[in-house]
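Support reply, case 0932

Customer input (verbatim):
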Amino acid sequence: MIERAAYDDEAQSLCVSFRQTGKYVYYDVPAAIFEALCKAGSAGNFFNTQIRGRFRCRRDPDRKRFGPAEREQA
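Our regenerated output:
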């Protein structure tokens, strides 16, 4: 489920890359939550019980999405 996670101490933001749905940024996440995520036996289970729905989030603003309308013209 989770491909990668990174934490920004200064911004208290957690960036989670999911295998199927892409990258999301979670805001106002305590460092202890990130540390526990890293140590969890199942990152997916930990995410679902301790992070999902508990912190404000949005899709990574730097992530570019490509679709039929956004293809380059040759």
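We compared this against your earlier run and they match. Two observations from our side: The longest strand covers residues 2-8. The two ends are 36 Å apart (CA to CA). Please reopen the case if you see a mismatch on your end.
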